[in-house]
User: What shape does this take?
Amino acid sequence: MIFMSLWYGNKKPPRVLFLNAALEELEELGNSGIYYSGLRFFVKPVVLTTDTMARLVFLNCIQFNAESGCDFCLHTGKQIKKGRGTSRIYPEPIDGPPFPLRSLEQQSNDLNFVLRTGKSINGIQGPSPLMAISHFDYVKVQVPDYLHSVCQGVIKLLIDLGTNSKNSKDLWYLDDQKRSLLNQRILEMRPSYEVTRTSRPIEDIAKWKASEFRVFALYYFPALEGLLPQDFYHHFLYLVYGLQVLLQENVSLKLVEETDLVFRHFVKQAAVLYEEKKSALTCIFLLIYQKVSLTGDVYWLLLHSSRNGLMDNLWH
Assistant: This one.
């Protein structure tokens, strides 16, 4: 991990101030390298993970809620009514192959079209600042943000579906009696030493940290048995199994391939069980599997967030 800079303030840092300087430094490290103990070491980034809004800056693309707003594949998305407004979702096709992943070649072709016509295509609006790094596949190294896409994304969504009173007439809803029993079961459970933050009551879900959602899915999930209808509980177990496999520090290719089938079933069943407009479980979750096969374990996808405390301690 290379700690390049730290911005302190109540606003986002100016783009040019940090990004351009960081890219120039990475280009120098990749071309000239650094000497240490008589050896020359070259530095190349292999994984780039950011939250959804930050990717707009790195890729020079449109927002996730616009057509072709997925930064990882060529899914155009689907606009649905939600509340008084609308929302764009990216459902996995029930039948047929998934949408193709973005590639550097495809991105280059789209960029040529944009520069030639002045019109956006496949969500691309202009050159990516990452093109400043030579011999660098800035498309392939982009990985979904585990913290927001999974912990505060899919897991949070499923728990909210079961506890939000707006869904009180649905089969999967947990009424007051069931939620009380769920809280009691969680308090009685004794997770392993790896769990440093125990989950607060379900009623405080709005205050839960990402680690609490992760712990619920990985350790407290048995508490849902008998409270959720069997089909919904078994569906949740697909998520649990897939995460437990991919969150290992070392995962065999065979297990990754098996997890692909698990996640595909999980996403497709979500649209059936929870209704497409309510589930909003998108193909972004399946991309985690595909990116794992290209870049390594999901373990790498969460490293950046787990190092926030370390960086915070560097500030005095």
